[in-house]
Automatic annotation (TrEMBL):
GO MF annotation terms: G protein-coupled receptor activity
Cellular component aspect of the GO annotation: plasma membrane
Chain ranges passing through the membrane: 12-35, 47-67, 79-104, 125-145, 185-204, 225-252, 264-284
Keywords, alphabetical: Cell membrane, G-protein coupled receptor, Membrane, Receptor, Transducer, Transmembrane, Transmembrane helix
Membrane protein topology class: Multi-pass membrane protein
Alphabetized SUPFAM superfamilies for the sequence: Family A G protein-coupled receptor-like
Location in the cell: Cell membrane
Pfam families referenced in this protein's UniProt entry, alphabetically: 7tm_1 (PF00001)
Domain called G-protein coupled receptors family 1 profile: residue spans: 25-277
InterPro entries attached to this UniProt entry: GPCR_Rhodpsn (IPR000276), GPCR_Rhodpsn_7TM (IPR017452)
Protein name in UniProt: G-protein coupled receptors family 1 profile domain-containing protein
Amino acid sequence: MDALSLLPYFKFWTYIFFLIPSSLCSFLVLYYLLFNKHQRHALHNHMIILLLCICLICQLTIYPWMLFFYTHHGYWQRSWIFCSIWTFIDWGLFIMQAVLFAWTSIERHILIFHDRWLTTRSNRFLIHYLPPICLTLYCFIWYGFTYLFPLCGNSVVNYYTTACMNSCLYDSNIFSLWETIVNQLLMNLIIILFSLALILRILWQHHRVRRRVQWRKHRKMTVQLLSISFLYLIFSFPNSVLILLMLCGFALTVHIEIKKYAEFCSYLVILFFPFVCILPLSNLRKKIIKFFTLTQHRHAARIHPTTQHRQ
């Protein structure tokens, strides 16, 4: 049995291993950010809340559906509407998250180095709220007309794939190139470049310009950005590069085989995202550790008297 035939089994056990803790982590972080007044009003948490909501939608829909698909040995007959919704969530929301995080990597520079730009209500709307609203609408419109309401009218359902809708719009080379270069590759490049630029700016301010950057205040924000950027660099960026190579004619067998593994890795971004978000939230981490510590003590306290009684 070759490696490719083992891949569905590997996907199934990998996804099921991370899905439950990742979903629980998403709920915990969202609860902490939404019901803690200080965290809820912090501008740097707004995009994280939105991104976590997208993650949670994916975790509660496409990942259970994929697991069910793998238990049916790679074939599952589904309706056209269901396939349209699945593919819209699977691909549309995934790209939306990357697009929104690309803006987040830009906005971090504003929040750290140009926070005075956000002192007025009008500036906060124009700089902080309007860009993600426009980007979200762009993704909804783009992928809505791609999968939910295709303009070409002859999209095909493929029962042998997880995201089972093959949109007819991808038959257009212009559409495919725009979707790959702008919506995927460019967003990943923005994430990587602006994350590196953030590191360089912090080092420059600290060592050369000698301007005081409130590092303790912005450390968690910076660490969170860099950690999430690392996720996209490792798991998402290679898949985008391979898609571009295949569109440019490099459709060799080795590239197709590597593409299967790159696509599998790209799905790990959603599963690992909540764990990365929790890293800078020290108070939440302490509460979780305290909860598990108390649970272990209570469990030990229940067992210990029984052991003594038997002795």
